[in-house]
Every structure is written in structure tokens, then in C-alpha cells.
Amino acid sequence: MPRDTLTERERKRLDRFEKMQQNRRGRSSPSVMPSKLARTAAFAPRKKNLITDSNFKRVYEFRPHTVVEVSGRELGSQHRDALYALFKLRAKRTEEPNPLYNPNISQVGLKAPKPTLVYYHTITTWREILKASGRSAHVNNLGTVLRTFEEMRKVNFRVYTGTFDQYQAASTRGRLAGPGFSDNLLNEIEWSGVELDSPVRVRYGAWVKEMFEAKTLVSVDSEVYFKLKSDYAKSLWPAIDSQNNYTWIDVDAVAELSGLDYAALTTRQKVKLREETRQAFDDMVAASGLSSWHCEQIGSGRVKSYRYHYVHAAPRQGVLELDAPADPLF
After folding, report:
1. Where are stretches of biased composition, namely Basic and acidic residues (predicted)?
2. One domain for residues 144 and 256
3. Which domain holds residue 254?
4. In percent, how much of the chain has pLDDT > 70?
5. b/e 78-95 (16+ beta carbons within 10 angstroms → b)
6. Both 192 and 267 in a single domain?
7. Are 81 and 235 in contact, with CB atoms under 8 Å apart?
8. pTM of the prediction?
9. Sequential DSSP letters for 153-179
10. What are phi and psi of 209, to 5 degrees?
């Protein structure tokens, strides 16, 4: 069918499909998730010494992609692992009749009941969750996984959906930063038993549902992710793997993905971050995510900075060696 005969909605759907086909890397078992969850610093690159105070609140910036405020407690690598395991197992969409909807009553306003309720959830077993996250299938691990889910369920995510410039301008004036969404990532966790093959259902929060409905999704190679040993590598890999046209990342962006402000670090802290970054890139190569990388020093003296160039081990399908490199956005 000629493209000019399609409706605007059909053209947009076709564009999304073509872009998805172009960006495929032949992954066999990817984690498919909202793009803002793949490109966020909301998970600290560590498993221990996390702040568990219920009064905890912090804004994480990864310019120009995401601004997320996390409140309730600090999240770490184990929480990101659990979330990526769920998205590896795929989210399913279901519709249920809304018991509050009455067709005989005029419905007006944002909170007006809709005829149906849409949910996204993952239906699986404890065994499959443990397998997806790289843990051994043993009943002793069930409590650890459940506790991790429950900790995530208590955390509120306030995600700003406007541009980063809007956020900065509003923050400077001390105002609420434009459009956004505030919700839990996980809404409900149900299980019918504590055996490895007992069914488990994890329902996602409204914001995750909206992202799935809007199709603002990306694919991350979960096989590589769960091979990574470095918590810093787990902070970098999703952002690197989900953005196919990027070929380098500056040290400032590396710091942001690690929940740090590079300019505010002491000299010793900067040296430590760069060492962790070198180990993270070596880890991504060892896990077969990248084929190579090198660090470029930019400038000198007080304005000296660093840029990490990398080559993905699984180029996009249809990309030729002679293609000109894309302009990186980091």
C-alpha cells in the first residue's frame, strides 16, 4: 500500500516498526522496558550501604534524557537486577471491566471512570525469575527476591516527562518542573506458594503501564547485563546498549549514570571514578557486549576531561562498515 494513502496514525506506526527493525541487534532474550528506565541513574552502583530511611528523597539527572526523583529509600544494583529479570520475562497486557463505570452517568474530568481497566503484569514462576536474574534455582533465594520486589514497591518514582531545559528552568525558579508522573514501579505482587514452580504475578504501576501503552520502549541485551560483574558496568550498559547511534560517552555522563556530579568530586574521587569506569568497560568487553573501547583525554589543566569511545559487539542489522559515524548525543 502506498505510504501517501496511509492515515497519520498508520504512518507513525509504520515509522516505529521500521525504526525497531533498523535497531535490532539479533538479541535472543532482551529485556524490553520503558526507555526512561534504561537511561536513568535512579539505581546506585552498589548492593550494600544503601540508604533505607523512609524519608530518603533524591533527584537523579541524566542529561538530556531523564530526570527522576526517588523517595522512600535508595535503590541499588539488586533492585535493577530484579526489574530487568521481570522485563526479560515480558510484560503482558490485560483488560478488565471497570466496576465503577456506569454508562448511564455522564463522566467528566481526569478521574472519570473508564469502561475498562488496563493492566500490565508479568506472570511467571519463582524458578523463572531466579533463572532470568542469574540466581541458582533454590528455595533459599525466594525470600531474597521477594524482599527486593517489596522494597521497590515502597519506592515512589516522580518522572518528569517534559524536556530537560523545562526542568532546569522550573528548578531555577523553585517551581514544580513541568509535566510529569508520580507512581510506584511495582503495584502488586501475588504468589500462590513458596515452591520453585509456584505461580507469581507482578503488576506494574500506572506510569510503567503508560510507557508500554505509548510504546516508548527500548531493548537491552539482558544476556550481557547479567554477565556483568561490575556494578558500575550495570549502570552504564543499559544506556549504551539502548542507544544504537552512540559511539562514545563523556566522563560527566558516566558520573551522572552512577548518581554523581563529576564537577563536584574531589581529585581523589575523580581518579576512583575513572578507575571504576575502566574496569566497567573491560567488564562489558569480557561479557561480549562491546568489542573494544578506548579513553580520549580532552583539553588540559583545569578544563581537562575524558571521553570513552566504544564499539558495540553486535552492530545493528543492516549497518555497513563504511557508514559514517553518527553524531553522539552524550
Report:
1. 1-21
2. no
3. 228-317
4. 79
5. bbbbbbbbbbbbebeeee
6. no
7. no
8. 0.80
9. HT-EEEEE-S-HHHHHHHHHTT---SS
10. -60, -45
